[in-house]
Amino acid sequence: MREDPRCPHCTEKVSATARWCMHCGRDFDAPVDAAHGRSPGSSAAADIETAMESGDFSGILVSFEEHDSGPLLVGIALGVVALFTLPFASPDGVTLWYLLAVVGIGYVAADADSVDAALDRGAKALAVTPFLLVFVRILLSGFLTVSVVSLIAPTVYAALVLFAHRAIARR
């Protein structure tokens, strides 16, 4: 019998013979072994896939933490997020710099020692990047092409990124 079995979705304590979690209501094949962090016989990749299919964000992060390449996976995920969201907060005319920034955000996150550090570093890089792109735009075109109003989108973007990071960090 396992010591301290946990739900694979919400990580709350459950019975060793439970087939569903009384905390989150989700079904599972077997409780998670707290010593190893996952169900017996399951792989980290399968755990990530299961968590993604169920939309369980906390389970995705737990699976990333258990995976040997967790920070790299976080870096890739943040790079994809940056690829699709940064254009909304970036000025026109900096496309090459925007693409370099996407790669940089992924690298900064992937270079961390842990998943939590990768999330922390990546979120900060993602929040500051629109401001750096505005600065690049100023360097390329001069101060007259950028107005104070053009700082609204980067400010809102940074606030949303930092709010999301804080919500994720509390999990």
Structure, explained:
Helix content is 58%, strand content 0%. By secondary structure, the protein is mainly α. The longest helix is centred in the last third of the chain and has 27 residues, at 115-141. The chain starts with 43 loop residues before the first helix and ends with a helix.
Strand % is under 5%
The number of helical runs is 6
Approximately how much helix is present in the residues?
55-70%
How far the N terminus sits from the C terminus, by CA atoms, comes to 28 Å
Overall strand count: 0
Structural category: mainly alpha
Main beta sheet: none
What's the rounded overall pLDDT mean?
A: 80
Supply database-style keywords:
171 residues, mainly alpha
Short description:
With 171 residues, the protein is mainly alpha-helical. The chain contains six helices and no strands. The protein is elongated, with a radius of gyration of 20 Å.
Helices and strands in order:
Elements: H1 44-54, H2 57-66, H3 70-85, H4 95-110, H5 115-141, H6 152-170
Helix pairs in contact: 1-2, 2-3, 3-4, 3-5, 4-5, 5-6
